Amino acid sequence: MEQSALLVASMLAAGTVLALASLGLLINEKAGVVNLGAEGMMLCAALAGFATVVHTGNDWIGFAAGMLAGGLLAAALGYLVIWLNTNQFATGLALSLFGAGFSAFAGTGYVQASLPARAQHALPLLSDLPWLGTALFRQHPVVYLSVALALGLLWFFYRTRAGLIVRSVGEAPESAHALGYPVRRIRLAAVIAGGMLCGLAGAFLSVIYTPLWVEGMVAGKGWIALALTTFATWRPLRVLLGAWLFGGVTMLQFWLQSQGVQVPSQLLTMLPYVATIVVLALISRNPTWIRINMPAALGKPFHPGA
After folding, report:
1. Domains of the chain, residue spans
2. What is the CATH T-level fold of the domain 2-119+135-293, as seen in this structure?
3. Which residue ranges run through the membrane (predicted)?
4. How far apart are the C-alpha atoms of 19 and 37, rounded to whole Å?
5. What is the rounded average pLDDT for all residues in the chain?
6. Of the candidates 38, 27, 22, 35, which has an alpha carbon nearest to the alpha carbon of residue 87?
7. Separation CA 87–CA 34 (nearest Å)
8. d(CA 225, CA 19)
C-alpha cells in the first residue's frame, strides 16, 4: 500500500511539469497561436530558475526567474509571428533550437552546482491520513497550483467575458477585429502568459522535481506537452488529467525497475514517447472530432489591414 501511495505521489509530481507547460500552450492555442518553441523555453527557464536558486537559495525567486525567462522568449516569439507575420511553425522550431543551444552554452558553469537542502511539504492533519496523506497531501505547493490553474482556466474561458474574447480571437479574429477588439495585442498577451507557464514548468523541473541542471534535461517534455493539448481537445481539466496519465507512464518505468521486472531500461525509458505516438495515432483516426474542438484560426496569421 505504501509503495502504491508513493507511486501516485510521484505520478502527480511528474505530471505537474507537463500540466503547467500544457496549460500554457493551451492559452496560446486558444488565442490562435501555435507555439512549437516550448522545449527551448522550458530549457532556458530551467536554467534560469536553477541558477537563481543557486545564488539566492530561494525557490520562489527561482520560479519567478523561470517565468520571466519564459515570458521574454514568448514575447519575442509573439512579436515575430503576430507583428512581423513570420511562419508560426518555423519560428517556433527556431526558438526551440535556440533555447536548447543557448541553455547548453550558458549552463556549463552550473552542471556541478547543487541546491540548498529542500524543505519537506505537507498539509497539516491531511498528510497524516493513511495512504491518502502520502499520495496526495505531501506535495510541493506548485502541484496544487497546477490544479488551481486548470480550474481557473476552465472558469476563465467559459464563464468570463475576457475568456470569451480570447476564444473569439482564436476562432474568428476578423470578426473580433470588426467589433473593435485589439486582436494582435490580445494574442501577444496570451502568448506571454502561456510562455510564463512554460517557464514555471521548466523551473519546477530543475528546482524541485530533479534539483539539478544538465544539458537537455527537459528531454522532450515540451513536445509531449504540445501533443497533450491536442489529446485533451483544448480543455483545461482534460489537460490536467492527461498530464497525470503521462506522468504515471513516466514513473511506471522506475516502479517496474524497483519491482525487479527484467525489462531493458531503454524500453522503459521509451514508454512516455511511445504513449504520445499511440495517443496521437488514435486521435488522428477521427479528424472531425479534432476539427470540431480545435480553435478555427489556430496557426493562421491575422492582418488587420486585410
Report:
1. 2-119+135-293
2. ABC transporter involved in vitamin B12 uptake, BtuC (1.10.3470)
3. 6-26, 33-54, 60-82, 89-111, 141-158, 188-210, 216-234, 239-257, 263-283
4. 16
5. 90
6. 35
7. 10
8. 7
Dihedral sign for Cα atoms in the order 242, 248, 251, 252 = negative
pLDDT at 98: 97
Give the confidence band of 78 by pLDDT, cuts at 50, 70, 90. very high
pLDDT category of residue 95 using cuts at 50, 70 and 90 = very high
Place of cell 498577451: 189
Q: State the pLDDT confidence band at 87, using cuts at 50, 70 and 90.
A: very high
CB 191 within 8 Å of CB 28:
yes
Q: What is the pTM of this model?
A: 0.92
Q: For residues 1 and 72, what is the distance between their CA atoms, to the nearest angstrom?
A: 45
What span, in angstroms and rounded, lies between the C-alpha atoms of 247 and 21?
13
**For residue 1, what pLDDT is reported?**
63
- Predicted confidence (pLDDT) per residue in 49-64, tens digit: 999 999 999 999 999 9
Expressed in angstroms, the distance from the first to the final Cα of the chain is 62
